[in-house]
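lol so apparently i was supposed to do this last week
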Amino acid sequence: MSDLQNTQDDVKAENRIFPPPAEFAASAAISGMDAYHALCKEAEQDYEGFWGRLAKENLTWHKPFESVLNESNVPFYRWFEDGLLNASYNCLDVNLQNGNAEKVALIFEADDGTVTKVTYRELHAKVCQFANGLKSLGIVKGDRVVIYMPMSVEGVVAMQACARIGATHSVVFGGFSAKSLQERIVDVGAVAVITADEQVRGGKHLPLKSIVDEAIAMGDCEKVRNVVIYRRTGGQIGFTAGRDLWMHELVANQAAECEPEWVDAEHPLFILYTSGSTGKPKGVQHSTGGYLLWAKLTMKWTFDIKPDDVFWCTADIGWVTGHSYIAYGPLAMGATEIVFEGVPTYPNAGRFWSMIEKHKATIFYTAPTAIRSLIKASDADPAVHPAKYDISSLRLLGSVGEPINPEAWMWYHRNVGQERCPIVDTFWQTETGGHMMTPLPGATPLVPGSCTLPLPGIMAAIVDETGNDLPNGQGGILVVKRPWPSMIRTIWGDPERFKKSYFPEEFGGKLYLAGDGAIRNKDTAYFTITGRIDDVLNVSGHRMGTMEIESALVANPLVAEAAVVGKPDDTTGEAICAFVVLKGARPTGDEAKKIATELRNWVAKEIGPIAKPKEIRFGDNLPKTRSGKIMRRLLRVLAKGEAITQDVSTLENPAILEQLKQAQ
Ligand code: PRX
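anyway here it is w/ adenosine-5'-monophosphate-propyl ester bound
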């Protein structure tokens, strides 16, 4: 465990409280705090009974489960393990049977504004055809398929088709580099990659297929038999005969029916890579039954989804938010949802508001970083302010991915929510599969900047470094005390790392460690997340390990040593600040600028543009203890531009601090 410094910081008192609007509460799935407490009590009194009831009521089982929770091999918990189901069946077929066949499932808006609507019947047919196509390639239950696609109907179809045949998908965000893609293809042992010729974002065409080619050419991808390509732009691509196929040709003669592969509830639905504090990104493995239950239930509880809602989650399918709240949760609820290909600033920064107006979105779920950048944009250009659009269709707003600062919360509340819409600040992680702590819009009084209380059945707590409970008002380590159905099952191929990372022995091996610090308010007992307590950064809601970026930097032939820390940033939440020692002399002036640019581009190539350091500082050395340990705490202070007040007597080379004050 690294330092707890963040969690000790005083969280500024926030006295504003916003009770749920009466008319919202009147029709909400969980209406009023009594209803919330009743559910919490049900879970406390009969944990298995609670989850068993919800799983029976919310999912359609091919074979019902008898066992709710198997705890015989802690922390490898097994939920509903003797039940059989299929995720795609639950998202699609169920909707054909319950009167939603002609309902629009997806409203897809392309970068250029072109809109395509897909009904549940059409989506079912597309998924079945593609599932049959994948089967014709010899892909079977348990195979892993990497999906490297733009935001598209086809991306959702690809995920659902894998689920239908029991293949485990691993979606790689389209902004990752060839090297990152290759590492994931190799680690997961993919038999196929599904991609597109190009993606279109902000009016630009960006390659995808050529990056797949590059990744495979890097080696160790022999298991990949096929690359299936969705033709998005018709741009020029290389084509490897015998390996590459067009998606439209693959599905051309396939039947629009495909019997789902019934899998047991613990069957891995997907593996999604995310960053940890050490080593390479880890493949977070999720189950089918427990995961889907929570994706669906949180749509009901947190988003209070109703048949007439138009739901819009702006995340990318490459992140867990896009899995739970685009590809699975909304469809399992039979909802209508918007899928957006583009970026919030194209053709101008009013794009989100104009899309809400156009599609009459009722629930809007986005990241604080997007809100902050749109605040700036509308300050600069009043024409793109939400007030210029008719966004009166909105009834609920959500926030995800990083702490939302009270100022951004208030702007969101006033200008987007028109002081009418509750805001659900949803705290969760790739590992948790769905929301963990969030207000319930028809029950919980809101406090800006707080994710308020855990959902019923989620036993969140704050403990000290020995695992003992801390009183409200005292910052500490966020843990979850009981397993829950949608939790991570293991790290793909590395069960030991799973145990060590999330259920460390120091805490008795049974507490789930989120990796975040938190504090509970003395009066309300509300939780506020105080930030990561490990070496993980959150830049624009994207999670990155400092070590990954450091490894990328030292892989550059010019670099001898590098240390990466986060620094607060008004727009992106945190920004990456890299301290670099070159093999040659410390550069200054234009030379330093040139090398800094070169290193930024290098990191973009090694990991992806999202990992580019915002700031690079060169030194002759890094601040180290006499035993050679880099003092990151000091680097964090330097990155913030603050004076060092800590004791530096253990420092081997105090003079180095002066040098590192300078940004390039
Ligand atoms: O630090 C927390 C932050 O994002 C981390 C999880 O990142 P990731 O696995 O990429 O998932 C992001 C989407 C769920 C957490 O450990 N985080 C996420 N949501 C919030 C948050 N921090 C504060 N408030 C939130 N609502």
